[in-house]
Amino acid sequence: MAVLSELPAELVSETLSYIPPQDLRHYRLVSRTFDAHIQGNPRLYSILHNVPVDYLTRLLNLSRELEISVTMECKDENDYDVLCFVLASYMSRIRSLTLAFDRTKWGPAALNNVVPITDLLSTSAPVLRRLRVDTGLFYINFPDQLLDGHAPRLERLHLVGLELNGVQPALARVQYFTGQAAWMDTDDKMHAFTHIQNRAQYFPALLTIGLDEFSTAASIFGANNRCPSSLNAMELVYEPEYTDQSETGQTALTALYDAGCTRLKRLAVYNPPQELVPLFLQSCEKIDAVLLEKDDSVTFTTVEPSSRTFQFYNAHAKDFEQILDTGILGHIELLVIGRQIEYEHEYHFFEELTTAPDIKIKQLALAVEDNGAVLPTWPSRHRMPFTELQELHLTGPRGTAISHWQLYDLLRRVVDLSPNRWRPTLVLHGINILESTIKMLTTSVFHAVMVLPLPLLMSERRFSVQ
């Protein structure tokens, strides 16, 4: 015990911070030093995550006057009233609140009781910066001013199952909003939430929006449902169980265009309707880069006249063919493949991309596993020929070793440099290679080999080595 009492206060505090706050009381008898910190260090209780509701008040009191972050998931209907009442009592100090209710096993009375949650969300929150609420219901009509109209620091908001009525002063500074866009009634009809239909009025400072659970883009976007002028990023999730089968790429693009959303700096769409991808890309002046850096997704970026990023998850196979037919990819300079290709239409897309006579790819970036194997591990029949490749970039975990036979295996399976007009430069990021291998490569395949110490961020648009 003498050793523990001699530990620096900073080390004791750091050690105890790894213990869940609700369990700290069990360590009070370890030493007097531990007991003093557990009883007297409020920072140990400034972040609470799913603590027992009957112990919540004590932990909040131990945080004293500090601003606190609270994350709670309520599954027991017997905790519902108490949880909401306790949190409302401390809203003046809560800087981040994440609250989710799982009502699947609740009785009818508790299931339909919205008073505790509406009372909590009607409480002033002077230091609240981040609020995430999943009510556990399809729809609650919130009759009052959210947070009593006073949340001057609120910047991030996520809502599920809650409809706001009337302009909300508490939302004046919200920059990031995500959540449910519409709710389904008992007749399986979808209705857009009022605050979604009136985004520009409800969220005048909005920069980023992410929406799911909607039937069509036209149901939440349009000339009468415009986006605030400050908006520069959007994420849309088409969920099969809610999406209307009449939705097409053209109807979606028209709705987004009418809402003023076609000049976004960043757009991500999950399960886009067929033809939306090529139609949206045609609205751009040119595409600078194509990236496969995440599973089941393809990303397109532009640099001029402005930097923009478009990411599409689970796009239709025919969309890949139409993308090539549009000619919009004639100006791309960079191709990034950050994972193993999985679908046949993706193989075909990249074969066509590299063989198209009007497409001159200057930079290619590939990922390397920690054992030195270069991805993608596709068969040799999908080998990509290049004619004007200037730089081949390989990146892997820092310290990854790569051998000459692994590099030659890459050229045998994936990259065909025989038609290239010149020998490109090989750039290795975070990868170790023997000097003898470099000499061998520069003699036969590459103009030069550059070895950089840090791994490459695959989302970067350009990897210039000039």
Automatic annotation (TrEMBL):
Residues annotated as domain F-box: 1-48
InterPro entries in UniProt: F-box-like_dom_sf, F-box_dom
Pfam family, one: F-box
Secretion signal span: none
Full protein name: F-box domain-containing protein
Species: Exidia glandulosa HHB12029
